[in-house]
Amino acid sequence: MPKPKAFVEDIETYAQDIVDTVREPLLMLDTTLRVRSANRAFYQTFKVSPVETENRLIYELGNGQWDIPALRTLLDDVVPKSLVFNDFELEHTFPVIGRRVMLLNARKLRAGSHAELLVLAMEDVTERRRSEADLKAIDMYAQNIVDTLREPLLTLDTTLRVHSANRAFYQTFKVSPQETENRLVYELGNGQWDIPDLRTLLEDIVPKSSVFSDFELEHDFPAIGRRVMLLNARKLQAGHHGELLVLAMEDVTERRRVEEAVAKAKEAAETANKTKSLFLANMSHELRTPLNAILGYSEMLQEEAAERSLDVFAADLARISSAGKHLLALINDILDLSKIEAGKMDLFLENFDVGRMIDEIASNVQPMVEKNSNTLQITHAHDLGEMHADQIKVRQAVSNLLTNAVKFTHEGHVTLDVWREEADGREWIVFQVSDTGIGLSAEQVIKLFKDFTQADASTTRKFGGTGLGLALTRRFCQMMGGDVTVKSVPDEGSIFSIKLPATVSDPTPEPGPGATGALAAVETEHVDCTDPIPDGASCVLVIDDDAAQREFLARFLSKDGFYVRTASGGEAGLRLARLLRPLVITLDVMMPEMDGWTVLSALTADEDLRDIPVIMLTMVDDPSRGFSLGAADYATKPVNRKRLTQILKKYTDKSSSVLIVEDDPTTRNVTRSILEKEGWKVTEAVNGALALESLQRERPALVLLDLMMPEMDGFALADLLHLHPEWQSIPLVVVTDKDLTIGERRRLSGYVQTVLHKGSSREASLARVRDFVVACSDRAKRNGRTN
Amino acid sequence: MTRILLVEDNEMNRDMLSRRLERKGYEVILAVDGPNGVDVARAGLPDLILMDMSLPLLDGWEATRVLKAGQETRRIPVIALTAHAMSGDRDKALEAGCDDYDTKPVDLPRLLAKIEVLLGATTHIGDSK
Predict the structure, then answer these.
(1) In DSSP terms, which residues pair with A616 in a beta bridge?
(2) Pick from A273, A304, A431, A502: CA 20 to 30 A from residue B52's CA?
(3) Nearest CB to B61: which of A295, A299, A561?
(4) CATH code for the part of the protein at B3-128
(5) What are the tens digits of pLDDT across the range A37-89?
(6) Are A44 and A63 in contact (CB under 8 A)?
(7) Is residue A32 domain-shared with residue A137, that is, in the same domain?
């Protein structure tokens, strides 16, 4: 060993360097517990110098700050017995650095020439312990919150095993933590959570999103019965627990039950209200009849009393009469209001002169103006012009404001100003009534437009009136797309304004209650059901895909007293036909979904509908050319007796003759014998040309026409028939070998078009439609058929 | 004496209106439904007809249309009476050929005024012929 000393020193220096680099304080003690050395970290941490440290007894270090009972126990008792000890925790308040938690680790070393050494490493874990305590507190805090929640909560890991649950969960589902934690959610409580919807949710929805809300789950839970649960979930990154899913469950069973009950109650209330309105509407009508008699006879008696100078009676009779009139006004208002509520109030829109209407209203109200010693001033521009609205309702609304103003004003001044203005891109007419009357408080204004409310109950006694007038006024105005507003100061007067569109647009008809069934059945196609059809009235069903044509035909036919219903397509048409059993159906040949011929086949196939006469119509490109009648009906060969008599019954009666145009003698004879057996007069023609000759001799009530004939075929004859003014209204029943082919249908439709291009004016063709409908209706009336 | 035909199916209304008209000096003949109204009008050829619109069998509009199509009855003025104060009813009545229109319950002075206007007009036309 040439240089042992230097070698040893080298190693010692090397060891000291390492020791100094360690950031944990280190002490080397000899067996007497005196400090052999310390590292830099020790000096720095405890703010002492090597001079104060080395060769001192550990307990004396830093003025005895290390003289700690726990350390004495450790060093005096534990250390001598073992070579090593780990993680001895020492909590102590050190003078310089304060209260610390130190983790002590020790090793006994043989250090060459030195005797046995004890290396004491100190780890300051104060911060770590504090963090751990904080974390524990947070954990507790969270668990307390979770346990306080009344909603059951489950925390699941990514494999859908329960990480934890809250107290509410255990209580609600009557399970214990042991049965719950670390189990697969589907296994909980004997599989009561194995619900297909929940599987979908957890396996399909949850993986795709970190949050989901209000997933509704209805399930029969063994412990608690059938429940509706609202599930809400959040994915959490829960530190070393990894990803967790918090599943919160809200039991909304009761809430759902209440909501359902509320919805049902609301529906019941609405039905009841509608029933009430209908009842009122009917009842009001019944009430009016006897009331009219009371009014009439009391007026007659008044007249008679006046003639005979029976003044004693006159005053009493006047009271009867005036009470009766008041009652009638009430009933009329109730009738209007209940009509509105039942959705049966229609608008009759027309053009009328506003100025003239105002003059009439003013002259009506004049007697009342004078009675209360008021003055009435009316101002409006001379060029007010016309408005397009429901005149009766506008008149009633304006009259109502004016009557009120005059009624509630004494020895005062009432003005009516009317003007035209532009707002929101359209023209409006404003009627403004100002008075110097009793005025209204803010509370009274709020109540003002409510049904059956006057400013206060005593008003009725003092001023009379129904309390419905303003409610009706407002409803009328709103129906027409306007409104009525009021500004008022008590004891100074009021200003009421009605603002209406100068051109009121037709509202979408609100279906009446009776029509809901039909409407529900044909949602996709438009049907029109407004006012109810009275018993015994004639109803015509118009089936046409073109809204303008529907509207036009409906208006035209209703002028003749027919109640018209319309359908925009074949489906809707057939349903309405079944529902309404119309007297006559007009059917457009060309419709996009189901053409007229298909509809006709369906009508013919339906036992209930086959007796209804059908008028086939078509419209040409130029609408001013109007409609034409196509073939009225068709039958297939071999001619079936039942079908034939059905058709004939529809279109004619036995007093007139039927012309059979048919080239095949067998068919001709069979048809003839069927008809004659049924009591019809029959004439025959074997081809088109002979049919024309026969037509010139006698006009038949109906023509049965074979389409396929030599010389002049059915189409050509149909053409001719429809060109001849006297013949064009003869119903034409086409007889074919088979169901009409698409080509034949097209040809028949096409022929109708050809006729039209050559044909008559709109008026003339319309007149033919009307004649036909009237004829069908008359026949039905004679046959005693009502719909 | 001026003869008025009242077509009205309600017995009390018929009784009231006829008596009040008679008291005003008119001769009143009666009919109770549409066909009856047409028959009585043809047979009695009144100077004016008061026609209720909601009549059984044949309603007032239809009956008016029939009368206005008849050679002899065409010239007789018809006042439509209707219970419904709907403008649609008024249009329907005028469309059917009625010369005027009034609502029920009848306001007698107003109705009398209308009657006088129509009678005056026909008399005037008659005079000028």
Answers:
(1) A587
(2) A304
(3) A561
(4) 3.40.50.2300
(5) 888 888 888 888 888 888 888 888 877 778 888 888 888 877 777 777 888 88
(6) no
(7) no
Q: Are residues A728 and A750 in the same domain?
A: no
Residues A100 and A179 in one domain: no
Domain boundary among A124, A148, A164: A124
A392 with B104: Cβ contact below 8 A: no
Q: Inform me whether the C-beta atom of residue A336 falls under 8 Å from chain B C-beta atoms.
A: no
Quote the domain boundaries for residue A119: 16-124
CA pair distance A652, A669, nearest whole angstrom? 21
ipTM over 0.85: no
Backbone angles phi, psi at A379, to 5 degrees: -125, 130
Residue A278 tokens read as 């209908």
Give A239's DSSP letter: G
Q: Across the interface, do A295 and B62 touch by the CB < 8 Å criterion? A: no
- Please indicate, yes or no, whether residues A597 and A528 belong to a single structural domain of this protein: yes
**What is the end-to-end Cα distance of chain B in Å, rounded?**
21
pLDDT tens-place string over residues A574-593? 888 887 788 778 777 667 66
Q: Total domain count for chain A?
A: 6
- Comparing CB atoms, the residue among A303, A346, A392 nearest residue B85 is A392
A14 CB-near residues (< 8 Å, 6+ apart):
none
Answer yes or no: do A292 and B61 touch at CB < 8 A. Answer: no
N-to-C CA span, chain A = 135
Among the three residues A317, A341, A365, which one is the final residue of a domain in this structure?
A: A341
Choose among B59, B86, B95: nearest Cβ to A348.
B86
Tokens of A12: 């010692």
Identity of residue A626: G
CB A644 within 8 A of CB A634: no
Residue A240 lies in a domain: yes
